[in-house]
Amino acid sequence: MTFNDDSQLSGGKVKRRGRTTAIGGGAVGVGAIVVFLIAQFTGVDLTGLVGGGDGLTTIQDGGQQAEPVQECRTGRDANADVSCRMEGAAESLDAYWTTEARALGTSYTTPDFYLFTGSTDTGCGAASAATGPFYCPPDRAIYLDTDFYDDLQRTYGASGGPLAQMYVVAHEWGHHVQQLQGTFAETDRSGGGAASDSVRVELQADCYAGAWVGDAATTESANGTTFFEPITQAQVADALSAASAVGDDSIQERATGRVDPDSFTHGTSEQRQRWFERGYEQGATRCDTLSVSGSQL
Question: What is the pTM of this model?
């Protein structure tokens, strides 16, 4: 998607953390809190590896400084710079879900969103550039090293366009909405399988991402100008390319030459594209992946 050059960014939704290697707090040993992650976008969502967030020990900040992303004032800035693009996407997503969450019967609050370089500490464990982006329920925060976008294109074969990048953010934002809905507490994401709760939760996040894209061209920035220009089919194809690249079947076949549906945790490429398109065409209220039969996923 292309931002309207004249749209206004308010700033403050996205913060940048400096590089760190130390874990603060001291309450829990490193071996007990570090979550080892698969180095892929979908596989590194910690929502599938930790509990719903209530009662999980949170790593202390350890003195890390988080400063708002600077010099992001307009859509023109978002078109030119990936950090500002993250700010613009966050502001658009926040505006969308502030309204749309009510349609889902959910009380909405804004997640934190941190960009980092190299490594950082979170309430879900230590994160590095290799872990990719993820949502951490205890922190109610998204963590992302923008170098991941190079991997998404180079390693997974996604198109790498702006909407492919923002799809990643929208998917993680969808996990935040699920946290607010109580979805994490109500599902068992400890296992895998083609019809598992893990797959259902991830496909719903894809659908939520599509719902935001479908509405994005009408969502207004602080000065009343829409954040985005009208979305083209080529731009939607960028997002579908990212969704396809991180399907369980695509990743497994690329890594091992075989596909094992019993180990699926995020859905096939076809499913991820289809549920994104469902959200794009029909909206967030049509993203119920939790109660449908396995054949309907």
Answer: 0.85
